[in-house]
Structure formats: structure tokens, C-alpha cells
From TrEMBL:
Name the UniProt record assigns to this protein: Translation initiation factor IF-2
Tr-type G domain ranges (all copies): 78-247
Location of the region described as G-domain in the Swiss-Prot/TrEMBL record: 81-229
Binding site for GTP: 87-94, 133-137, 187-190
Subcellular location as annotated: Cytoplasm
Keywords: Cytoplasm, GTP-binding, Initiation factor, Nucleotide-binding, Protein biosynthesis
Length: 479
């Protein structure tokens, strides 16, 4: 008990007012934030046809729920912007990231050793800015595809001597798709062949019109190599982030996203995470993607151990049971038991999903897989009672050709269908044909688990006909 009306309403997916009204009808006067005793909770539950013991089902394993929760306004404070650098190859992304890092590390942090953890933070007039260290839109989009929307500002670097190139346009489109504001850094301004006006001209054709030309895109001329224009670029980042009013509540259990993850031989799984809300602390029980654990140690981008990490701060953490993936989200839970059970549930779901995603080829989906172009050939594993049948079957199957698609024999041998045949079929997305043989009990179980199709025949013609008919899409439905 102890839940208040607002929380009860949320669990029941009802308006708090509706619950207050119901209670009023039952003779209980309550306000939204007043904790309710168990008796009253039972009354409400009974009224909605729920036994109080059965907790109302919220899917606590769905991490996205925690990202949608609204924080109350008073708790929100300004947080540093998270900046990604994109642009065409060789236009100076890495040089810019290095020069930003090397010149602008705040004095209090001096003496630390730069640690490449996938992101770093610098301070400008005491205002921190976080940079993601992996330039390019591939990393950006992979993260987004996995649910992580961490970038607040994108800097698109365009070399002034080269102009807009294919990956410049891709970068623009990725940033636009994510609805992230763009600052254009016109780089290599030191070069005699630099032509910033041409860059402006070319970018205007892609919807990025400079303020100088009456548009609303900020352009800054820089030389990443010689440090020119870097201060102005940083000022512009702070300006854009001020306009965005980036806020977070540091006083709650942390949530955020994975920037990078790897497996270290001695330390185990290591991941760089970026806190988006709340403050992450040593010892926090945590679920990251479909991994879980307790935050054992935290290291910042200076290689220093830290005890806490607040909003927009990247840290490298250890203590997870496995390495998560870039773009996975993390959520801190109240206790380790919950974190473990959520983590295990998510692992189970991830495994189920990856299995069904692989879309095993079967006789029934063969035609649609072929016509959708997912399949270029039909992989088959043949097992038969005698070598003569193995050869007869493979000879005939290899003669089949339907609209340019052929059968490829991955493996053919005499003997029962074993687990190793199933593993091979699963790995190469093949169908197993058994002629006068059966799968071993273990192979049968594994085939069911891996969803590998095993077809058993006693007449060679039938085995061949089944494959050919399936490839032509003329199978009679089985009842
Ligand atoms: P990235 O592929 O976008 O990460 O590009 P890099 O940062 O690796 O830079 C590509 C090349 O351009 C390197 O040889 C850099 O030294 C050079 N470069 C980068 N910025 C500048 C600059 O401002 N001026 C000049 N002259 N060269 C630069």
C-alpha cells in the first residue's frame, strides 16, 4: 500500500478524477497525492474487477516505458547538450573531435589521461558539452534504430576545398530524419583552395540556408587542424542548446543509452553509457538492453574513477553479466532481484525475436521467400539410408531449376539425421530431406527449437516433387 490516487490511476490506465469520483461514491474522500490504505486500494480494485493481490500488469520489462514517464517540472534542471559530428569522409571529423578534446579540457580535470570511451565532455566557461566520439551517420543511425535518441545537436563538417559530397547529403538526411538541429562547420578554411561560399551555395540546394543568406542554419568557418573558429563553433553549440532548453531530473534512478560496448578479457563486459535522466551510482542494480548486473566501477573520459554520473555524462561501467549493444537503453531498478528478473525476461524475449527474425526457410514459405527475393537458392541437406539413394537424390535435386533458382546441396550423407545436421541447416538456412531415415530424438527436439524444416520421404520421386512444387508456389495447403 502507500500508493496514491495518481499512481493507482496510472496502473489502471484511468484518469485520477474518475477514481476520486468512485471513492467519493463509496464514501471515501481522497485527494490525488494522498497515500491510500490497503482497504481503500482493495475497494478500488474490486470495483474494477481486480483482486488486490494480483498486481495490475504493467510490463516492467519494456524499458521504453521508463523513457516515456514524465518528470515533474520543478525537478528538471538544465543539462549539457550531446553533440554528434557527421560529414563526408576526409572532411575533418576526426581532426575536429581531437582538437575539441585536446584544447578544451577544463583545468580541474587536467592531469587526467584521455581515455577513448566513445564519448567525452569538455567545459566552456563552466558549461559542459558532451561529444560522441564515433563520427559518421552509420553509428548515429544504428543507435537510433535500437531506440537510443541521444543526440541533441549535429555538426555537419564540410571541407571548404571539396564541397558537398554524397555522405554530406546522407548526413543531412539522417539528421533531418531524427529531427536534430544542424550546425554546419565549414572546415579547412586555412587552405588556399577553400571556397566557403560554394559550400553555402551547395548546401542551400539541400535546404540548409545560412543566416547570412536569410535562412536559419548556423554556419561556422573553421580550421580543425589549426584550431581556427573552434571557439565560435562552441559558442554556437551552447546557443543552440540554450534555445532547445535541454533539461533533465538528476534526482531519480538513472536511465540512458549505451554508446559502446565490448568484452574485456580481464574486466569482463565493459560499456560506455550516457545518462539521460537521473544520476547513476556505484552499486546501482541495472538492466542494459538484455543484460543486467550491478554497477561495479565507473570511469570517466579522463580515465578517473567516479562514484556518480549525472545527466549527459558518459561513463564506462563494469558489472554487467554480458556485453550489451550500442544503442541499447538502460534502466536502474530498485533492487538487484528486479533487475535480474527484468534482464532475464528481456534476454528470453531477445532470443525469441532473433529466432523468428531469421525467418527460417521451410517448404511452406519457400515460394514466398523466393519471390520476395530473400532467397537466391534453395539450400538442402540430404540424409538417406544408403549411399546410392544419397547420390540419386542429390543428382535429381540439382537438376531442378525454377526461374533461374536452383537447389544447392549443402551436405549429403548416409545415416540418421543428427543434431549436427540441424545445426548446419540452421546456420545455412537449409531444409533437411530424410530418405528412409529419421531424426534422432535430440535432433528432433533441436529442429523444433531452431525451427528447421525436416521432410521425411520413402519415395525418391515424392522428395523431388515436393521441392519443385514448393519452388513453383503450387503446394497444396496441408490440413
Ligand atoms: P574524417 O574522415 O572526416 O574524420 O577526416 P580527418 O579528420 O581524418 O581528416 C582528413 C584529412 O584532412 C587529414 O589529413 C587531416 O589532417 C586533414 N584536415 C582536417 N582538418 C583540416 C583543416 O582544417 N585544414 C587542413 N588543411 N587539413 C585538415
Amino acid at each position: 500500500d502507500g500508493m496514491n490516487i495518481q499512481e493507482v490511476a496510472k496502473k489502471l490506465h484511468r484518469e485520477p478524477a474518475e477514481i476520486i469520483k468512485k471513492l467519493f461514491m463509496m464514501g471515501v474522500v481522497a485527494t490525488q497525492n494522498q497515500p491510500l490504505d490497503s482497504e481503500t486500494l482493495e475497494l478500488i480494485a474490486a470495483d474494477y474487477g481486480i483482486k488486490a493481490e494480483e498486481k495490475v500488469q504493467v510490463d516492467i520489462s519494456d524499458l521504453s516505458v521508463y523513457f516515456e514517464e514524465e518528470d515533474n517540472e520543478e525537478a528538471m534542471v538544465t543539462r549539457p547538450p550531446v553533440v554528434t559530428i557527421m560529414g563526408h569522409v576526409d572532411h575533418g571529423k576526426t581532426t575536429l573531435l581531437d582538437s575539441l578534446r585536446n584544447t578544451k579540457v577544463s583545468l580541474s580535470e587536467a592531469g587526467g589521461i584521455t581515455q577513448h570511451i566513445g564519448a567525452y565532455q569538455i567545459k566552456i566557461n563552466d558549461q559542459p558539452i558532451t561529444f560522441l566520439d564515433t563520427p559518421g551517420h552509420a553509428a548515429f543511425t544504428v543507435m537510433r534504430a535500437r531506440g537510443a535518441d541521444v543526440t541533441d545537436i549535429t555538426i555537419i563538417v564540410v571541407a571548404a576545398d571539396d564541397g558537398v559530397m554524397p555522405q554530406t547529403i546522407e548526413a543531412i538526411n539522417h539528421a533531418k530524419a531524427a529531427d536534430v538541429p544542424i550546425i554546419v562547420a565549414v572546415n579547412k578554411i586555412d587552405k588556399p583552395t577553400a571556397n566557403p561560399d560554394r559550400v553555402m551555395q551547395e548546401l542551400s540546394e539541400h535546404g540548409l540556408i545560412s543566416e547570412a543568406w536569410g535562412g536559419d542554419t548556423i554556419f561556422v568557418n573553421i580550421s580543425a587542424k589549426f584550431g581556427q573558429g573552434i571557439d565560435e563553433l562552441l559558442e554556437m553549440i551552447l546557443l543552440v542548446s540554450e534555445v532547445q532548453e535541454l533539461k533533465a531530473n538528476p534526482d531519480r534512478m538513472a536511465i540512458g543509452s549505451v554508446i559502446e560496448a565490448r568484452l574485456d578479457k580481464t574486466k569482463g563486459p565493459i560499456s560506455t553509457i550516457l545518462v539521460q535522466q537521473g544520476t547513476l551510482k556505484i552499486g546501482d542494480p541495472i538492466v542494459v538492453g538484455s543484460t543486467f548486473g550491478r554497477v561495479r566501477a565507473m570511469i570517466n573520459d579522463q580515465g578517473r574513477r567516479v562514484k556518480t554520473a549525472g545527466p549527459s555524462m558518459p561513463v564506462e561501467i563494469t558489472g554487467l553479466n554480458e556485453a550489451p549493444q550500442a544503442g541499447d537503453r538502460f534502466v536502474v531498478f530498485e533492487d538487484e532481484k528486479t533487475a535480474r528478473s527484468v534482464g532475464e525476461e528481456r534476454m528470453k524475449r531477445a532470443q525469441q525475436e532473433s529466432r523468428s527474425k531469421q525467418n527460417r526457410v521451410t517448404i511452406d514459405n519457400l515460394f514466398s521467400s523466393l519471390s520476395e527475393g530473400e532467397l537466391k537458392e534453395v539450400g538442402v541437406i540430404i540424409k538417406a539410408d544408403v549411399q546410392g539413394s544419397v547420390e540419386a537424390l542429390s543428382g535429381s535435386l540439382q537438376k531442378i531449376e525454377v526461374e533461374g533458382v536452383r537447389v544447392r546441396i549443402i551436405h549429403a550423407a548416409a545415416g540418421a539425421i543428427t543434431e549436427s545436421d540441424v545445426t548446419l541447416a540452421a546456420a545455412s538456412n537449409a531444409i533437411i530431406i530424410g530418405f528412409n531415415v529419421r531424426p534422432t530424438p535430440q535432433a528432433k527436439i533441436q529442429a523444433e527449437f531452431e525451427e528447421v524444416d525436416i521432410r521425411l520421404h520413402r519415395i525418391i520421386y515424392n522428395a523431388i516433387d515436393e521441392i519443385e512444387t514448393a519452388m513453383k508456389g503450387m503446394l497444396e495447403p496441408e490440413y
